[in-house]
Amino acid sequence: MPEFKVVISDPKTGKAEQVEVKGEQALKLIGLKIGDVIDGALVGKPGVKLKITGGSGRAGEPMRPDIPGPRKGYFLLSGPPGYHPPEKGLRKRKFVRGNTISEDIVQVNTVIVETS
């Protein structure tokens, strides 16, 4: 069974909290992409809409919104997430993950977009 740590950030207060999601709720997260909006009841926060902003895999590799699918690999990057160049114009091959949540994801980052 998959298990995720979901980080919920509140832009109004600037605080974040971490919630563990297991079992059936975790299965509902698999296949979602960065940018998708989910119901907060899925992670134990009813009455809130959450937008997926990213995440990371087992080895700490970050998810990138511009790489489709649940794959991972070495990609040539010129900016964040995954690489912060020390000088303008530098590019580097870094190990990153695609924009789709799979069972290999450990942490899913979300932000509150709507409160009812």
Describe this structure in words.
- This protein is mainly β.
- The chain has one domain.
- It contains one helix and seven strands; from the N terminus they run ββαβββββ.
- The strands form two sheets. It has a five-stranded mixed beta sheet. It has a two-stranded antiparallel sheet with strand order 5-6.
- The longest helix has 7 residues, at 23-29.
- The chain is globular, with a radius of gyration of 15 Å.
In short:
The chain is mainly beta. It has one domain.
Q: What fraction of the residues are assigned to beta strands by DSSP?
A: 35-45%
Assembly annotation: single chain
- Which structural class should the secondary elements be placed in? mainly beta
Sequence of secondary-structure elements: EEHEEEEE
Helix proportion of residues, in percent? under 10%
Distance between the termini: 31 Å
Shape: globular
| Average pLDDT for all residues | 92
Query: How many alpha or pi helices?
Result: 1
Instruction: Count the domains.
Output: 1
Low-confidence stretches: none
Number of strands: 7
Radius of gyration: 15 Å
Q: Strand order of the main beta sheet, please?
A: 2-1-7-4-3
* Largest sheet features: 5 strands, mixed
